[in-house]
Amino acid sequence: MVPSEDAAPQLDVDQILADPGVRIVVCCGAGGVGKTTTAAALALRAAERHGRRTVVLTIDPARRLAQSLGLTELDNTPRQVKGIDVEASGGELHAMMLDMKRTFDDVVLQHTDPAKAAEIFANPFYQAMSSTFAGTQEYMAMEKLGQLHARGEWDLIVVDTPPSRSALDFLDAPARLSRFLDGRMLRLLLAPARTGGRSMFSLVTASFGMFSKVVQKVLGAQLLTDLSGFVAALDSMFGGFRQRAEQTYRILQARETAFLLVAAPEPDAVREAAYFAGRLREEKMPLAGLVLNRVHRPAVPGLDAAESLAAAERLVGLGGHEGTVDVLRAHAALAQQAVRERQVATRFTEAFPAVPAVSVTAQPADVHDVDGLRTIGAAISRP
Q1: Residue 358 has pLDDT above 90, yes or no
Q2: pLDDT reported for residue 172
Q3: Distance CA 12, CA 53 (A)
Q4: Long-range contacts: 238-244, Cβ < 8 Å, 24+?
Q5: Which helix (H) or strand (E) holds 73?
Q6: Which ranges of 112-237 would DSSP assign to H, the alpha helix?
Q7: Of 295, 304, 349, 369, which one has the fewest beta carbons inside 10 Å?
Q8: Distance between CA atoms of 118 and 370, rounded to whole angstroms?
Q9: Inter-residue contact 293 to 363 (CB < 8 Å)
Q10: What is the pLDDT of residues 280-306, one digit of tens each?
């Protein structure tokens, strides 16, 4: 088993999904390790097997979640998934995909009056920032999580974190964005407007005049005007960004949240999982366990690679056993891969021996329907 039962305690995912005290499950890890599939499989199992009213939030731009759940589309509003087996359990499954710009627009509408919101929406800097600014997607994922939690409609919220370069971006981006929006340079840009200056670049002091000229030269007059106008229009929301980021952080630290690290038995993915585990420990956030996806296991674990290759060579010498030789060599390659994967996984289990873990055997094909999600859910939960 990778990781082996001797190396780490066994992760009981069903216990997490069935616990009414757990209201949020966050699937996190590096990109391309199966977070979206894992999140969907867990949400489906929570609804079908444990009778929970569940919503899964994905940030996957490839829309694979919609396809696997039989939905034609996903958007910023939860949609109920029909045709799943919840008659006995009484559960429900809803799914949604984060719309970064619409979520940002909703935040503006919620915390400003209509006239101010219209001014913000028309600002070119806001239009660019709400769609492409680095960290905005991760921040809006946290915003959406906070909104879903506040509504109180769900027994369980399953979050598929953004496919970021670094899994830590999900935790870092809210604070980074709020620091940007509340930063010293933006406050300096806003100061002339507050003092009643005749233009955006009217100067309170000669020293600020020098600063403004330098910034204007670097950024360009129009961009600086757009940026200053955005800051002035958004001034009433500055405290709100910071406050909501802090509220969501407290939710993520609470006992009602369970973080599941998702990784593949590859050096970069396991290293990323280890970094995230360390960060969760520092932030006192509840790490429930590790899900190691796409693990390879030979059909005959008692036959190691060396023995298999030796047997193949003996048969080659005898002649007439080409098919068996191919099978033995294929088994040897798979056994060698399994050993490499076990060694990679050990790097995590040795660093975090108390973190429960479960491994999921690599599937012969990509998951593309509800039955496939059920298979993954059963493999993770190991009933």
Answers
A1: yes
A2: 76
A3: 20
A4: 238/181, 238/182, 240/107, 240/111, 241/177, 241/178, 241/181, 241/182, 242/178, 242/182, 244/143, 244/146
A5: none
A6: 114-122, 124-132, 136-151, 169-181, 184-194, 206-219, 221-233
A7: 369
A8: 42
A9: no
A10: 999 899 999 999 999 999 988 889 999
